[in-house]
Amino acid sequence: MAKTLSDIKQSLDSNLGRRLKLKANGGRRKTIERCGVLTETYPSIFVVELDEENALERVSYSYADVLTETVQLTFFDETSGNLAIGGQ
Questions:
Q1: How far apart are CA 8 and CA 1, in angstroms?
Q2: Helix or strand holding residue 8 (H, E)
Q3: Are 85 and 57 in contact (CB under 8 A)?
Q4: Which residues of the chain fall below pLDDT 50?
Q5: pLDDT value of position 45
Q6: What CATH number did the domain enclosing 62 receive?
Q7: Which of 1, 33, 34, 74 has the fewest beta carbons closer than 10 A?
Q8: 82 in a structural domain
Q9: pTM to 2 decimals?
């Protein structure tokens, strides 16, 4: 992805509503890998609605998390369903 916080925000703004794969550092050597949809972007954070079987779960991260590679986002290609755009 981009190298500054404003570049990261602009990149995510252009991908609103797209499906993605989220890989986040959960602390204590835990890594969380989930799929979801990028739903909202705000001046300091972005919101992802994660796929769940029974309930909808929303998580938010800051753009600094993407910059420091605490969170990695990979968007799906809408036509083929394959992973298309890498995060980090």
A1: 7
A2: helix 5-13
A3: no
A4: 85, 87-88
A5: 97
A6: 2.30.30.100
A7: 33
A8: no
A9: 0.82
What is the rounded CA–CA span in Å between residue 82 and residue 28? 31
21-45 in b/e form (b: 16+ CB < 10 A) is ebbbeeeeeeeeeeebebeebeeee
**What is the domain extent for residue 25?**
5-75
Query: Closest Cα partner for 59 from 51, 27, 76, 17?
Result: 51
Tens digits of per-residue pLDDT, 55-79? 779 999 999 999 999 999 999 887 6
Is 84 within the bounds of a domain? no
Q: How many independent structural domains does the chain possess?
A: 1
Give a yes or no: residue 87 inside a domain: no
Res 37: pLDDT: 94
Determine, yes or no, domain membership for 86: no
